[in-house]
Each structure stands twice: as C-alpha cells, then as structure tokens.
Amino acid sequence: MRFAADVADLEIADYQRAVRLVLRHPLITATFPDEKALPRVRRFAADLRTDLSEAFGYRLELHGATARLVRTADRLDPDRGAVSRTGRPFDRQRYAYLSLCLGTLGRAGIQITLSELAESVGGDANRITGLGLDPDVGADRRAFVDAVAWLEERGVLRLADGSSSSWASDPGAGEALYDVARDAVFALFRPPRVLQHIDSVGALLERSPISSGNAERRAAAQAARRAVLERPVVYFDDVPAEVGNHLRGQTLAADLQRLTGLRLERRAEGVLLVDTAGWSSERFPGTGSVAQAAVLLAVAIAERVSDPDGRKARRMPMPDPGEARAKLAGQIDAGLPAGVPLLLDEPDPVDPAGDPDETDQRRLPLITDSFLREATAEVLSAYGSAFGTAWHADPERLRTEAVALLVRFDAVVVVPGGVLARPLIGRYRSTVAQVKQRTLF
User: Which residues neighbour 162 within 8 Å (Cβ) at sequence distance 6 or greater?
Assistant: First the structure.
C-alpha cells in the first residue's frame, strides 16, 4: 500500500471521509463546514499531511482551531469562484472588498465592529482608482456585506452581538460586533509567492525546476491525480503525454480508491472519478430546473450525434485551449494596479493543418444553436409542469444556463454558432430521462 499505510482497516472508511472532507473544504474552522469537521481532520492529521503531500503535492497546515489545505494549481479555473449566500457569484468589487477585509482583520485585535471594518476597508478602497466604498450607496453596501458574510460563514468572523442585516439595511441604525478568528485569518490568504513580486497571474502557477527523472515521474503522477480530483472529466487529449501515461495506468485507480474511497472510470477518451459519496460541491446530473434541462439537452445532443437515420453532424477541430487560458489570464491581469507591467504568455502557435490522422481524431460534432433552441423548446413542451413559468417565458435563458452547466462539466465546448459535443456526452446516449413533475393546485 502506497497511501494510508498506517491506517487500520477498521478505520479506513473514516480516513477516506476525512480525505474527502479536506479536499472539498480547503479551509476548516471550529464551525465550518460544521462543528464535527475539525476533530475528524485532527484525528488523522499525521497521515493526512503525509498522503496529501505525496499523492497530490498539497500541504495541510493546522494552526489552533483551523485546518488549511494549500493546493498546487496546474491551470486557471474560472469555475471555482466565490459565491454569496444567495448564490450570486463574486465580481471584482466583492473580491476587492474581501481582500481588503482580510488586510484589515490581519491588523485588528480579537474583536471588531462592522462599522469599524467598513470604515477601514472604505479608507483603503477609496484610495484605489475605480473601487471606493460608500456605505450610503446601496450597491457598495451590498457588495461589502457579501464579502463579510463569506467570512462569517467560514467562521473567520463570529457574530458576538447585533446583526449585520440591520446594518445592511441602514448603516446608521444597526451595528454588529464580531469575534475575529485570527488563526483562520492568517490561514486563509497564503499565496505561494509574494504578490508584489509577480507581474502576471500566470506566475502563481510556476514550479521550481525539476532536477531528475525520478522527480519528473513523481511530478507527473501528482499532476495526474490532481487532474482527476479537480476536473469533472479528464480527456487524454487535454493533458501532456507524461500525465496521460499515469492516467492510463492501473496504479492511479488503486491510489485514488485507497485515499478517497471513490472509483475511477476509464474510457478510451479519458477518465473520471465517480462521485458515489457526494463529496463534490456540484454534481451532474443535479437538482433544479437548469440541471434538469442540461441533462435533457445532453440526451438530445447524444441522440443527434449517434442518429443513424439523421443528417450526419458536421465535425470541427477543438479550439486551442492555450488561447482560452491566455484570454482568462489577460482578464485577470487587467485588474493589476496601474504601472505594473504585464508579461502575458502567448499561446503556442498551432498548425491548422497538423497531422491528418490526429486532426481527424480531434474533430468533434458541431451542435448548432438552432438545434439547441429547438431541443429546449421540446423539453419545455414535453415536461411543461416540471419547469416554472419564468423558464417558459424565457426559454433562451434556460438554454444559455443549461449549456453553461454542460461546459462546466466538460461535456461540450462553446464555439461560434453552437457547441462541440465532447465524449462525456456519450454517457447519455439512449438514456431515458425522468423529470419530477411539479404538483399543480
């Protein structure tokens, strides 16, 4: 056994739950995600430190009433952003307020009032061109409260007295007093490099030079395990050859089974980790109207691609992922302070002709926007009572959000005029989908 070697067989299920817990919640405090989480991690702290480091290159730190998993990132991921309690994704303003809150709390004592925090963050924000914070402006106040609520939910701030909702309604009429969990404050923001010394977000992904063949093989194995954990599906075409070799090997499946208790599913095109324990934050198929529409669209796309009697779908080459990564890095770097030079990595040039056999294999079926609109209309017609009146009134929004969900799970790739169906769509070929109908009164 390469991992969990010192864990007794009777405890392996508990150990695997602890591994899944840390992987899902990289920050664990006395109250987040619940009061039982931290004791579960502390029970296996030594084994977790060793295995997470050896298997994934992650670092587990425990300080006081806080456990922090410092991950190693291999690529920028736009789908892991922070969200508010109401499900609203954080924008630049909210991220800026969150960062300024952490800076203020790092200098604060063991308690702070909401108005004091707002005053300090406002002082810093008002010195930043294009940001600012005016508590009398509703949009600023809501964005600031979302940042504070994010910290409160994770136990970084603990409400001791008052209410943040009353302050959010009227800063002059309400107040809240918070206890500051200083261990959590210092554990939360741990960049791998001093931010003042980097000139692009891409620098955060840089690695130290590898000096030997053994180190290269170990790094490739770790990258393969990370890819399986952090992506909904890993296609062999999307990873370097050395990482793909580890993905194809039997050792990877055994390692992940031993560590997480989850089974690896392998197909000709790639692999995925089957989430039978509900450890991931988002699952597909999932619940809700958008998730239901997405799986029904996946079924329709699979039938369109495999229909022997229908018109053959046109095939197109996959877009260059390097261009998408460079574009995302440019969008992030656009938020750097004025005067900081940008040194963006240009994507490697791609030969549009390429190898004929390889290009033919990487061509994917094009599903047009018109087909997706027709399929969405058929879904609403066939399962009318399963979707609310708002979706019937705006089917285009339902289509857009359902396609976005399929994109997040690497089932399709958006291209001009439609989407390209990736191999994951094949899982839903000949699927009979059942949608729970709404009860009408």
Answer: 113, 114, 174, 175, 176, 177
343, pLDDT greater than 70: no
Last residue of a domain, one of 154, 188, 222: 188
List of residues 6+ apart from 266 with CB closer than 8 A? 247, 248, 253
Q: Do 262 and 299 fall into the same domain? A: no
Q: Are strands 234-235 and 263-266 parallel, antiparallel or unpaired?
A: unpaired
Tell me how far CA of residue 44 lies from CA of 7, 17, 54, 391, in angstroms.
9, 11, 15, 47
The 3-state secondary structure of 253-312 reads HHHHHHHHCCEEEECCCEEEEECCCCCCCCCCCCCCHHHHHHHHHHHHHHHHHHCCCCCC
259 and 163 belong to one structural domain? no
Do both 221 and 177 map to the same domain?
no
Q: Which of 417, 387, 385 is nearest to 402 (CA)?
A: 387
Task: Verify that 149 and 120 share a domain, yes or no.
Answer: yes
Q: What is the pTM of this model?
A: 0.85
Place of tokens 């793909």: 244
Is-contact 423 302, C-beta < 8 A? no
Q: Which residue has the tokens 């630049």?
A: 92
Please count the CA atoms within 13 angstroms of the CA of 333 that sit on its side-chain side: 21
Residues 217 and 302 in one domain: no
Q: What is the 3-state secondary structure (H, E, C) of 145-198?
A: HHHHHHHHHCCCEEEEEECHHHHHHCCCCCCEEEEECHHHHHHHCCCCCCHHHC
Q: Which DSSP letter does residue 231 get?
A: S
d(CA 139, CA 282): 29
Buried b vs exposed e over 150-166: b needs ≥16 C-beta within 10 Å? bbbebbbbbeeebebee
Residues 293 and 411 in one domain: yes
**Nearest Cα to Cα of residue 55 among 202, 228, 242, 204:** 228
378/372 Cα distance (integer angstroms): 10
3-state secondary structure of 368: strand
> Is 341 within the bounds of a domain?
no
pLDDT tens for residues 159-195?
A: 998 887 777 777 777 788 999 999 999 998 777 677 7
Domain residues for 259? 213-274
Distance between CA atoms of residues 404 and 414, nearest Å: 9
Q: 234-290, pLDDT tens digit by residue?
A: 999 999 999 999 999 989 999 999 999 999 999 999 999 998 887 777 777 778 899
Q: How far is CA 31 from CA 58, 180, 275, 328, in A?
A: 23, 13, 25, 34
Q: How many domains, the chain? A: 3
